């Protein structure tokens, strides 16, 4: 097979490789990289392609093997091997410390957000937070239970908006 014929066949089959790459990587950018690596290897190793062989299967095999090799390389790169004799300290809670700085900042922000709530929303919210039931809050504040639920809901919503910076914090 000439280089021109090979290029034509690979170009024709390469359209069906992208969905396979997407299934393997589950990411569009990584799929594009995998497809590019596969085609590069195919053109580099054109002399290893035997005439009469199913070129589509040959390309799929290259892609699958390239994906596996890349995955294994990534796993090896992210693997941490500790050769010290003190392995028992690795997961020991006694050897770890937590300075609680993050939680202190978070609590300061939460308290500040609660302080700026309107009193009509803050009071029912804080009572509910302290463990009062809706009907107990309604009796104590002498307002309907639906109003209590609504004010607590609005307080939560406002706090959620004010504290959105912590939405994805762990």
TrEMBL record:
SUPFAM superfamilies: Sigma2 domain of RNA polymerase sigma factors, Sigma3 and sigma4 domains of RNA polymerase sigma factors. GO terms for molecular function: DNA binding; sigma factor activity. The keyword Flavoprotein does not apply. Residues 109-159 form the RNA polymerase sigma factor 70 region 4 type domain. Keywords: Sigma factor, Transcription, Transcription regulation. InterPro entries: RNA_pol_sigma-70-like, RNA_pol_sigma-70_dom, RNA_pol_sigma70_r2, RNA_pol_sigma70_r4_t2, RNA_pol_sigma_r2, RNA_pol_sigma_r3/r4-like, WH-like_DNA-bd_sf. It holds the Pfam family Sigma70_r2. It comes from the Bacteria. Coiled coil: none annotated. GO terms for biological process: DNA-templated transcription initiation. Residues 15-73 form the RNA polymerase sigma-70 region domain. Belongs to the sigma-70 factor family. ECF subfamily. This is RNA polymerase subunit sigma. It comes from Siphonobacter curvatus.
């Amino acid at each position: 097979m000439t280089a021109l014929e090979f290029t034509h066949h690979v170009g024709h089959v390469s359209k069906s490789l992208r969905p396979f790459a997407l299934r393997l990587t589950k990411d569009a950018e990584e799929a594009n990289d995998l497809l590019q690596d596969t085609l590069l290897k195919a053109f580099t190793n054109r002399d290893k392609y035997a005439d009469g062989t199913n070129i589509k299967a040959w390309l799929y095999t290259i892609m699958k093997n390239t994906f596996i090799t890349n995955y294994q390389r990534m796993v090896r790169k992210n693997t941490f091997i500790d050769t010290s004799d003190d392995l028992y300290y690795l997961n020991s809670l006694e050897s770890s410390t937590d300075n609680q700085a993050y939680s202190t900042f978070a609590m300061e922000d939460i308290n500040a957000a609660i302080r700026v709530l309107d009193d009509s929303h803050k009071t029912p919210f804080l009572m509910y937070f302290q463990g009062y039931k809706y009907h107990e809050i309604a009796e104590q504040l002498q307002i309907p239970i639906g109003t209590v639920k609504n004010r607590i809901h609005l307080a939560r919503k406002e706090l959620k908006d004010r504290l959105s910076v912590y939405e994805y914090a762990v």
